Prior knowledge:
The chain is of the alpha/beta class. It has helices spanning 7-14, 25-38, 53-62, 72-81, 96-106, 116-125, 157-170, 188-203, 230-242, 258-261, 290-294; strands at 3-4, 20-23, 42-46, 66-69, 86-89, 110-113, 133-138, 145-147, 173-178, 182-184, 211-213, 251-254, 265-275, 278-281, 301-304, 315-321, 330-338, 346-349, 370-374. The strands form 3 sheets. Strands 1, 2, 13, 14, 15, 16, 17, 18 and 19 form a 9-stranded mixed beta sheet that branches. Strands 3-4-5-6-7-9-11-12 form an 8-stranded parallel beta barrel.
Amino acid sequence: MEDYDAPDELVRQRRPDIPVTCFRPAALEGAVRWFTQNFPGKVLYAVKANPAPYILSGLFHAGIKHFDVASIPEIELVRGLLPEAHLSFMHPVKSRQAIERAYFDYGVRDFAFDSLEELEKIVTCTGKSKDLTLMLRLAVPNTASELPLSGKFGIAPEKAATLLKAARKAGKRLGITFHVGSQTMDPQAYSTALALVGEILQSIPRTRVDIIDVGGGFPSLYPDMVPPALADYKTAIEQGFDQLPHSGRYEFWCEPGRALVAESCSVIVKVDLRKDDVLYINDGTYGSLFDAGHMGFRYPVRLIRPTPGGTDAALKPFRFYGPTCDSIDYMPGPFSLPEDVREGDYIEIGQLGAYGNTMRTGFNGFDVTETVSVKAPPLTTMYDDAPETTDSRELIIV
Length: 398
């Protein structure tokens, strides 16, 4: 991977014709530092957010030793790259073959479930082993999240006690896990979920629960989604922990994905054509900008001219079309850029370390990309100790 001081240096030296991902190791390390220093328990990285080997290796060497995996390919990837990593199979619904391979071939001992049928599959497919950590996925409100995840997985709280008692007999350790939804904008969502956990624990005083896992949902910063400080999430979670019965008994887990890796990557795209307020760029919803099109995310953007010198032009809202022949390859934004942006200019799009290149497809053949490493800070940050971005007309954050 080539190294550059800043994306501008890359653009002016090479004028790339394909999208280029700019990896920021320092931003990744800063996010890891915050979670490992502030969360009172184990931090599991949700591999689905970005499974790139340089991300996984960077996380591990920065201090993340536990990984939340959802499939055999993710297990194979992490185990092959990081043999000493601890893997937890947190997908609540798995095939029998996946359970068998995870347990017998890759040494996985942590399994999530949200039904009696799934619990029975896990017990049967692991040979009724007694070294299992069984994690019951609880359904909790997702009303504070931008991307609710409550419809597909999770058992209703009133039905949880029966499953916990059954799992207690089957495994070595027992836990409760939940997910408050992706990009959760209110820290109290965790307090609400933990209060439900507390009620369940009170209803089963003779059933020992070893682990409480608050899942993911920790937010990142986008132009139209400015969440509270991460310190507020820490406070809400710790207050929720303190209210649990026998609060000193449990091991605590969390599973951040987006918040750990979003700031670590941006993507440089090239403007191929301008039509009024529409810019045709060489990446799109079939590439790293899925969420910008299908979910309406607005990312921080800035203009990079291929020759030195900025612009004094006022900012104007633009829409983007991607490079494919499909008209749904469209990103409404708006994305604010100088009004004199033109063909041949480049745009850096930030916050794409999470669910960016991960979602890329080969549709229409537009799947050729490259990755470089840069020292420049991210376009925007949630982490207080990160270096500030230079304020200039060449770096426009909206």
